Amino acid sequence: MSGPNDNYDPKQVEALSAGVIDGYVADAMTAIAQADSTDELKRARLAHGGDRSPLALANREIGALPHTARKDAGRRVGEARGRVNRAVAERQAVLAEAELSAALVAERVDMTLPVDIAPRGAVHPVTAIIDHMVDVFVALGYEVAEGPELEAEWYNFDVLNLPPDHPSRGEHDTLWIDPIEDAKLLRTQTSPVQAREMLTRDLPLYIISPGKVYRSDEYDATHLPVFHQLEGLVVDKGISMADLRGTLDHFAKAMFGDVATRMRPHFFPFTEPSAEVDLECFACHGESVGNPDRPCRTCRSEGWIEWGGCGVVNPRVLEACGIDSDVYSGFAFGMGIERTVMFRNGAPDIRDFVEGDIRFSRSLLGGAR
Ligand code: DAH
After folding, report:
1. Residue-wise pLDDT tens digits, 29-50
2. Do 20 and 29 form a contact (C-beta atoms < 8 A)?
3. Nearest residue CA, atom 3 of ligand 1?
4. CA 194 to ligand 1: nearest atom
5. What is the total count of domains within the chain?
6. Does any domain span residue 111?
7. Both 258 and 207 in a single domain?
8. Judgement on whether residues 79 and 163 belong to the same structural domain of the protein
9. Residue 166 maps to a domain
């Protein structure tokens, strides 16, 4: 601030001259007009209208003027500050309005969009087909039985007529549980449930048992180390291979519609006689057989695909479970559940069952019910 100015001549107080004040105002107007956000405008307001702005500093000079001159100078500075403040207020209104409109566009919420807070899951195709299989057999009077996945070697092999040195044990790629002396394993088949049921339930027996089985198999398009089987067992008086054939035909029709089945002699230690049950190839319907121009990859041009194993329960198994094989006889069957879904729905790669992609489950749902 300047000292007292006794010989006052306003024109000599440079900061208060009309030309300089107008210059300050012009600078302020330019900065205000150029501000294109409210933040920039705030900076312009502080620079040109704030406490340390040229106009504020000029205002302080007024106090150094003699009384006679203060009124004039005061009015000039006051008017200048008023013009700057009004310009700031007008620009502020324009910029705030523009920023609000931009925010309303950017943050727009479409209230008409459907809400999907928790994405809906889907029933797994294995679960769905098991439900369907259970429905088919419960309608025939069967009961559902379950057994443990951690199984004793005796149930998985010995009682099913597979003693320790039996060669077909080697086909099972068994996963044994430590310590090995405990003779525990992850069941390689659902067949041990047969023995558990024969040992605990009253006769006659009509049961199915769906469940998980384990084998140290490769993980590829046709193998999973953990998959599912459906086991069936009937023990009653006068049961024969003809009953098995009729039951499997009915089951196949319920699963696949009007499809032909056939039985092919095979060997299983727990059934005698044994067979593999085949389905007519759903891809070529037998047309590839003897027709090199139309080879079929699904059945390797054989016209049939293997669905599962079956047979008349071996009397040795009945006896091992305390059942008089002179009075009772039975049949049994077992098939892969994933394979059943794959045949039914034309799913080419078994790995899709464990990849967890919900689109796979959804794509098969319609067909599995
Ligand atoms: N357990 C057999 C397997 O895993 C399938 C099987 C064959 C089950 C014949 C049966 C049967 O009940 O009678 O290969």
Report:
1. 999 999 999 999 999 999 998 8
2. no
3. 189
4. 12
5. 2
6. no
7. yes
8. no
9. yes
Range of the domain at 320: 125-367
205 with 341, same domain: the answer is yes
Ligand 1 lined by 161 (C-beta under 6 Å) = no
Nearest-atom index, ligand 1, CA of 331: 13
User: pLDDT tens digit string along 296-307?
Assistant: 988 899 999 999
H or E element that contains 305: strand 304-313
pLDDT reading at 1 higher than 80: no
User: Based on the domain organization, do 168 and 293 belong to the same domain?
Assistant: yes
CA distance 247 to 242: 9
Pocket test for ligand 1, best of 173, 185, 189, 239 (most atoms within 8 A of CB): 189
Q: 18 CA to middle of ligand 1, Å?
A: 109
Q: Which of 369, 354, 361, 358 is nearest to 119 (CA)?
A: 358
Q: Please tell me the residue having the least CA distance from ligand 1 atom 7.
A: 309
> How far, in Å, is the centroid of ligand 1 from the Cα of 327?
23
Using a 10 angstrom Cβ sphere, with 0-12 exposed, 13-18 middle and 19 or more buried, the burial of residue 260 is: middle
